[in-house]
Design a protein that fits this description.
CATH architecture of the largest domain: Alpha-Beta Barrel
Number of domains: 3
Number of helices: 13
CATH topology of the largest domain: TIM Barrel
Radius of gyration: 21 Å
Strand content: 15-25%
Helix content: 25-40%
Number of strands: 16
Shape: globular
Largest sheet: 12 strands, mixed
Structural class: alpha/beta
CATH superfamily of the largest domain: Aldolase class I
Distance between the termini: 66 Å
CATH class of the largest domain: Alpha Beta
Amino acid sequence: MRYFTDISKVGALSASERASLQKVTEVYKFRANEYYLNLINWKDSSDPIRRTVIPNVRELEGWGTLDPSDEKTNYVCQGLQHKYRDTVLFLISNECESLCRYCFRKRIFNSGRNEAAIDYSSGINYIQNHREVKNVILSGGEPLLLSTKKIGKILKKLDSIPHLQSIRIGTKMPAFNPYRILKDPELLKLIRTYSDPRRRIYIITHFNHARELTEPSIEALNQLIRAGAILCNQTPILRGINDSAENLCTLMNLLTSVGNVPYYIFINRPTSGNKPFAVPIVKAFNIFSRAKAGMTGIAKRARMVMSHSSGKSEIVGISEDKIYLRYHQARALEDESKIMEYERDDEAYWIDELEECDELIGGSEGIYLSPEKLN
């Protein structure tokens, strides 16, 4: 597979485009492979596949931070984040097959700082010694960029930990390069080995637009399913890529039809360089709601969420004057299932821009209004 890391080598761009985009790549790195670039309709400057990997001059507009969810506070050792009680995020790769322009973790590609694990033993020892940890998410970067041999060593170690209930692999490889899966029977053998009937391997894919679901991609997904993996998909809602009810509905239904059930739809985090792809909360939820009306029953399982430093909040409703969020997961145990009420602001892109109203309280016995609000 041929890779491009110098925008001036992308011959489908005009000389003036290459010159203007060079300034962007000096700030935010560029990387794309030949397979994915060949999916672009170069005659369409607004092509969604193009927007996914080709730099945009608007990325240089001042907006957000490089760590909008404050991930630096979650590390317990090199590469391992423990934010939620029963789940850890294990960054096992510092590189990606191609670089999404809207990536919320682009800091690891641009700073030269290696946040991913170098010696995996420290993270695995931590998981072994913390019995409250039930779920491990292998992420990065791109986990499937590692050699199959190295992935196998990690899975073998994790498989030996009795209190683990699930292992998830977050990957965009089926969209960026399905041949990584199709041409490596040893990788599929690994999935088959460690996707036990009592503890399946979950593959969390990142398809953002229906056109990424090519025949090779669909076959790669099929091979993963046949190897025993459970597939789920997550995507941000992205301006110019999937921010229409029609496009989002088409993507969700197609994913469902090939056995890759929609999971999370994220509000794009306020990450530096991401303003060209951001969609305001209210608009995003309205698009999602309209798309949902056309989704099949299984596709309707998708949830729209925001990954804030305090936890993952699901948008559960928007009225004429209010926005309602519920913690799907929370950093603080006392916030689990808490419902939050905010003043509606159609221009807000993120939770921190909203004005909170009277507190709503949630718990295992149900959701109810605070006594002050009842009075």
